[in-house]
Design goal:
This protein is of the alpha/beta class. It folds into 2 domains: 4-358, ABC transporter transmembrane region fold (Up-down Bundle); 380-627, Rossmann fold (3-Layer(aba) Sandwich), CATH 3.40.50. The chain is built from 21 helices and 10 strands. It has helices spanning 12-16, 23-31, 36-53, 55-68, 89-139, 142-147, 150-200, 204-241, 243-249, 252-305, 317-358, 420-427, 450-456, 471-475, 484-493, 497-502, 520-534, 550-565, 576-579, 599-605, 608-617, and strands at 380-387, 397-404, 409-413, 435-440, 443-444, 457-460, 538-542, 568-572, 584-589, 592-597. Helix 8 (204-241) runs parallel beside helix 11. Bound molecules: adenosine-5'-triphosphate. The site of adenosine-5'-triphosphate has 15 residues, from helix 12. Adenosine-5'-triphosphate is lined by residues 146, 389, 391-392, 396, 414, 416-422, 462, 588. Keywords: ATP-binding, Cell membrane, Membrane, Nucleotide-binding, Transmembrane, Transmembrane helix, Transport. This is ATP-binding cassette, subfamily B. Residues 46-346 form the ABC transmembrane type-1 domain. InterPro entries: AAA+_ATPase, ABC1_TM_dom, ABC1_TM_sf, ABC_transporter-like_ATP-bd, ABC_transporter-like_CS, P-loop_NTPase, Type_1_exporter.
């Protein structure tokens, strides 16, 4: 099993969430109303255009019968009042030529209008769909990203949305065209000669049966192909994200062979679909030819020797010519239903995945009666908080309780993996607690709107993330309207101004994708400046200075002193000197707070903290008993 295989398909959610049974109907139901005007014009001109294409064969048949085969004495045309038709042969000939030209013009105009309106409709719907799918990914809980590979999500946003583009432009238009043509042709043909129509249609059930069988066989194969391409993309994405690790461990070969496995799975899935498609298209072709030949043979016989079999109505040569065109067209259109089903099935699988993403259930961001958090003093209280990560076997936090007064400086210490970062992520509601409550100024954070909560809390994580762009844009990310002075001031307080000035373009220097052009310590200082600029009433610094040297760390601490003094600050640090001055220290071990108090009190207590402190000061190199991997 590879990394990506562990993730369930996004598409499964659509059905579970009780969406409309057909995701493509769902698509139209959601997006047509916003574009109803242009959609109606597109559909109507398509119908008109298709009906117009049926006129020339009809005119040709009538012309033949009226002027050349003398099977009719006067010219009469369906839907054209007899009074409009001139009486002399010359006049009638010019009149019919005029009709040919007018039909050609009208056909061209409707085609142009149909093309541009369908294109507009398609782009407008895709724009809305793309925006909604992107909104959905932004809204999703962190838990989602732990179960769904990024490449899979990217595949939905790119491949599946593009597949729907093909459906909206090609498939939907073809559906309108084919339906119009089939109904129009049947109407015309029955009106002209119902008996020959009955014969022409005798193969139709066979064709429709073939199409139905095809749809049943191809749909699961398309589903497989789609999820295989998602896994393939996920792997490529992972490999590009981790390119540095791959190179340093020289694991290019392993990654390549994993890619080949995914690529082969995709190839096999495609092959299974291709075999079914190949069989269908060739059988359809054969059936189409047989139907066309049968119309030619039977129709020709009819004209030459009279009605065959149980038929009774005579057939003129002109009408036979009209029927040759119509018959072929009927056969072609009914066989096109196969393509339509193909596009439809493919698009359906894509729509399932796109709506799976859009409708993915979110617990945190979608609380219906959440209230915004109003002016925050910064009194934070954890009451018996327990939490287990979605895919974890055991609890990460167990009965964690503590209280931080407004403006207090709280340090979190403890061995790695003890649950310090997790505890503070719950304050930001990156996850919700399983048990217990977290309150800010007495308000349970699970009842507040996520936006107002995160507005009140500044967070600098262990992994400083910078967006591609300039240094200034990255600092001002938390306050895009901040003045130049405020940005520089924040940078100074984060001890970043000095190095920024030495960069080639100062604050306008491009940091590269994810900030790769800067060192870890430089990135960290920019993320601290970003948090400072926001001036939040509550600040979380999670190992925020772990990448900088001791001297810079001291300088940052110095400049953060003011900041810390005026707001509730939580600092996680392994360098205990960083948090020695904290008003309160919380010592975590195995998801529990095992000691708390200020530095002096904890040293006196002579427990875990005191042991860690002795190691920190170099007084001892011995690992305390509690932390010894094999016990003692
Ligand atoms: N997204 C996650 N899914 C599942 N388990 C997780 C996740 N993030 C962290 N954990 C687990 O939860 C436990 C606590 O992790 P946490 O990051 O809170 O520890 P920490 O005390 O902050 O450690 P460190 O000092 O190394 O940052 C660890 O055992 C970790 O493996």
């Amino acid at each position: 099993m590879t990394r990506e295989d562990r993730h369930p398909g996004i598409g499964t959610v659509h059905e579970e969430e009780g969406g409309v049974s057909d995701p493509l109907l769902d698509l139209l139901r959601r997006y047509v109303p916003g574009n109803v005007g242009v959609f109606c014009i597109a559909v109507w001109t398509t119908i008109l255009h298709q009906l117009l294409t049926l006129v020339p064969p009809y005119l040709l048949g009538e012309t033949l019968d009226a002027f050349f085969t003398q099977q009719r004495t006067s010219l009469s045309l369906v839907l054209v009042p007899q009074t409009w038709i001139p009486t002399g042969t010359r006049g009638q000939f010019v009149f019919i030529a005029g009709l040919f030209v007018a039909t050609a013009l009208a056909t061209a105009i409707t085609q142009a209008v149909q093309f541009v309106t369908f294109r507009w409709f398609q782009q407008s719907v895709l724009h809305d769909l793309r925006t909604n799918a992107f909104d959905a990914t932004q809204r999703l809980d962190m838990a989602f990203f732990e179960t769904e590979a990024t490449g899979n999500v990217m595949s939905v946003l790119n491949n599946d949305v593009n597949q729907l583009r093909d459906f909206l432009l090609g498939g939907l238009r073809q559906f309108v065209e084919s339906t119009t043509l089939l109904l129009g042709l049947l109407g015309f043909m029955i009106g002209l000669h119902w008996q020959l129509t009955v014969f022409s249609m005798s193969f139709l059930p066979l064709m429709l049966g073939l199409v139905y069988a095809y749809q049943q066989a191809i749909e699961p194969r398309y589903d497989d192909r789609r999820s295989a391409v998602g896994n393939l993309n996920a792997h490529v994405q992972n490999a590009i994200d981790g390119i540095e690790t791959i190179k340093t461990f020289s694991t290019e070969h392993r990654e390549r062979s994993e890619l080949q496995t995914h690529s082969r799975t995709f190839w096999q899935a495609d092959w299974r679909a291709a075999k079914v498609s190949g069989f269908f298209y060739s059988t359809r072709r054969l059936l189409t030819e047989v139907m066309s030949i049968a119309i030619v043979v039977v129709g020709g016989w009819w004209v030459l020797f009279g009605p065959p079999l149980a038929f009774s109505a005579p057939l003129t040569a002109g009408l036979f010519v009209t029927f040759l065109f119509y018959g072929r067209r009927l056969v072609k259109e009914s066989s096109q239903i196969g393509d339509l089903v193909d596009t439809y099935t493919d698009a359906r699988a894509s729509a399932k995945r796109v709506f799976g993403l859009i409708q993915y259930p979110t617990k945190i961001t979608k609380s219906a009666d959440a209230e915004p958090l109003r002016s925050v003093d910064g009194h934070v209280e954890y009451d018996d908080v327990s939490f287990t990560y979605p895919n974890a076997d055991s609890a990460t936090l167990k009965d964690v309780s503590f209280e931080a007064q407004p403006g207090e400086f709280v340090g979190l210490v403890g061995p790695t993996g003890a649950g310090k970062s997790t505890a503070l992520k719950l304050l930001l509601r990156l996850y919700d607690t399983d048990d217990g409550t977290i309150t800010i100024d007495g308000t349970d954070v699970s009842t507040t709107t996520v936006a107002s909560l995160r507005e009140a809390v500044g967070y600098v994580s262990q992994d400083p993330f910078l967006f591609g762009g300039t240094v200034r844009e990255n600092i001002a990310y938390s306050a895009p309207d901040a003045s130049e002075e405020r940005v520089i001031d924040a940078a100074k307080r984060a001890n970043a101004h000095g190095f920024i000035r030495t960069l080639p373009d100062g604050y306008d220097t491009d940091v590269g994708e994810r900030g790769v052009k800067l060192s870890g310590g430089q990135r960290q200082r920019i993320t601290i400046a970003r948090a400072i600029l926001k001036e939040p009433p509550i600040l979380i610094l999670d190992e925020a200075t772990s990448h900088v040297d001791t001297q810079t760390e001291l300088l940052i601490q110095e400049s953060l002193r003011d900041l810390v003094a005026t707001r509730t600050t939580f600092v996680i640090a392994h360098q205990l000197s960083t948090i020695r001055e904290a008003d309160q220290l919380l010592v975590f071990r195995d998801g529990r707070i095992v000691e708390s108090g200020d530095h002096e009190a904890l040293v006196e207590q002579d427990g875990l903290y005191a042991s860690l402190w002795r190691i920190h000061t170099g007084e001892t190199a011995e690992l305390p008993d509690q932390l010894h991997p094999h016990g003692r």
